Structures are given as C-alpha cells and as structure tokens.
Amino acid sequence: MPVPPRIDAGRLLEFATAVYTGAGMPADDARLVADTLVQADLWGHQSHGVLRLGWYLDRVRNGVMNPVTQPEFVVDAGALAVIDGHDGVGHVLTRLAAQEASRRAQAHGIGAIGVRNSNHFGTCMYYTLMGARAGCMMLLTSNGGPAMAPWGGRRKVIGTNPWSVATPAGRHAPFVVDMANTGVARGKIYLARQKRQPIPPGWAIDINGVPTTDPQAAIDGIILPMAEHKGYAIAMMVDVLSGVLTGSGFLSQVHSPYKTAEKSNCGHLMIALDIAQIQPLAEFNARMERYIAEIKSVPLAQGFDEIFYPGEMEARNDERNRRDGLALPEDTLTDLARIARETGLEARLPF
C-alpha cells in the first residue's frame, strides 16, 4: 500500500481558507477557522483537524451557522461582558471573547466574557493560548451536544463539555490543559472511524448499554465519562458555566457540530487573569520554570522515557509537523478531495 503524502501545512491552510471564503465567510474569519483546523493537526490532535473541514462547511450550507458573524454585547460591565453570537461562527466569537477577556484583565486585573448562541470552535487550547501569550492565565469552558448519560442513567443528555487552562511558562512552551470530560473526546471516535480502527475498551457503550469497540456503535451509543461519576460532575459544572450562566443552551438544547443541520445553541465562558497584577510576570515565569524542572526530575516509571508537562507534546509535534509535513488518514484525504470537487477548488488541493 502506498504511503500517504506528507502535506505542507501552509498549503493546507490556504486550501481550507479558500473553502470557507467560497462559502461566504469574510477572508479574515475564513483564515481563522482554517488555521484552527490545521493547527490542531500540527499539534497531533487529528480529531479536531481538517477532518472537520466539511462539517463546518455543511453547517453554513444548511443555514444553521451564519457565515458572517455579527456579535452583540448584551452585557458590558467593565471586567465583565456577555456576547450574543446570533449563531455566528464559533471560532470568530471565541477569538473575540479571548481578546476581550485579555483586554479587560489588563484594565481590571480580571476579565470574564460569556458567549451565548455560538457554534463549535475547534480546540479550546487555540484560544487559551492567546491569553497565555498576552501574559494572562486563561480559562475557557464550552458545552456541546449530548454524548454522555448522567451517572446511573442510560440516555445521553450531557455533552463532552471541554475546558482548558493556559499560562506562560518562561523559556518553555506555554503550559496548557485541554480536555473533555468523557474518557475521550468524541472527535477521537470519529477519527478512529476515519482510520477504520476499533476503539479501546472502556471508551463507550452501544445503544443497548453493552461495552463496544466499534466506533460507529459508540457514536450511536453513549461515550463514558472520565473517572466515572467525577467526569460526569465536571461535565455538569462546565455546562452550568457555559450554558446556564451565559443564557445559552444547555443539556439536550445543545447540538453537536456533527449534526450539521441543527442549530448549535452552545455557549462559552472565558476568564482571564492578568498575571502582572498578581506578581511580576518575570517572577511568575521563573516560578513556572522551577515547577516544570521539579516535575521532570521525578524518577521514571517502567516503560516511560520522559515526563511531559501539559502542552509540551503539542509544541514538539507542531515543530516536527511544520518541518516534515502532515500525515493525514486516507479517509480524510478522500474527504478533502470530495470538498475540492464540490467547491471547484481541485487546483488548490495541497496533495
């Protein structure tokens, strides 16, 4: 079997941008959405990469996501604001929230932005890293369509509901945590389906409540929470922060990006702390360096070659994949070729 080609990230970005501008997004917004997808692939998170290119495109085509985003500040109270996204592009709204949270944190020490009536935005860490680069500690929560049952139940009503925290880390790549509250992000199950691979036991149960390793049965069934009842409780917390508090949808009112003909109703909460107003940023960075050094000094357990801090593996993957090119699953390449044919952009395909 021939080895799939390594794809230049820059050319892939240009292709994805052209797809979204052709769908009616302003050029800067289209490039942002494309960049979030390519960046996820560069980090090694193919579950949130160009695998999703067609999903966002179909949401625009189906009229459930407006290609031209028109945010409205329905609350504007100094350090605090709430944005109504009016079903605009989630990536554009969340970038605005990150920028506003950082700006208000620099003015007030803390900035908190709620977003209602938004759409899925890709990886949380794409936006929390914006805060880290601005000298902030940033938290982002977001809710999603039903994927998980409440602990003890067998009907899914709670999303994977991801969250992220990022900070600068001195001479190191930023510290960044980005996780869903299921044992695995739903996108990883879609990726396994793309790769035609089984999923590990313990990820999901089918519609009859039976453990499954079949990705399609998992998608049709229920994804299991991480750490059993603890993951369920954290997912609820994220839903309350992202949906109930912001005035957006919650629980079964929210629809996932995979259901491309249904309005999302999702919400987000972004909180930024200006580190320099707590302690000098240089001091914080030095403390983070000492923190990371102590973590890495711990003796290795059997079978491990190195200890990583959150965000380090992604930074290394980014450097390698920018240098060597991206290796994408065959089904993803096939899907990109289909989108190119449908949009008349075959000449722009990067492979």
The counted number of beta strands is: 10
Q: Indicate the mean pLDDT.
A: 96
Describe the oligomeric state of these chains in a short phrase.
single chain
With strands numbered from the N-terminus, the spatial order across the biggest sheet is 1-2-3-10-4-5-6
Structural class: alpha+beta
Unreliable runs: none
Query: Can you tell me the overall shape?
Result: globular
| Helical stretch tally | 11
Radius of gyration (Å): 20 Å
Helix content: 40-55%
Sequence of secondary-structure elements: HHHEEHEHEEEHEEHEHEHHH
Largest sheet: 7 strands, mixed
Q: Indicate the proportion of strand residues.
A: 15-25%
Instruction: Kindly report how far apart the N and C termini lie.
Output: 17 Å
What does this entry look like structurally?
The strands form two sheets. The protein has a seven-stranded mixed β-sheet, sandwiched between helices. Helix 1 (9-22) runs antiparallel to helix 2 (27-43) and helix 2 crosses helix 10 (312-324). Helix content is 41%, strand content 16%. It is globular and about 55 Å long. The chain has 351 residues and is of the alpha+beta class.
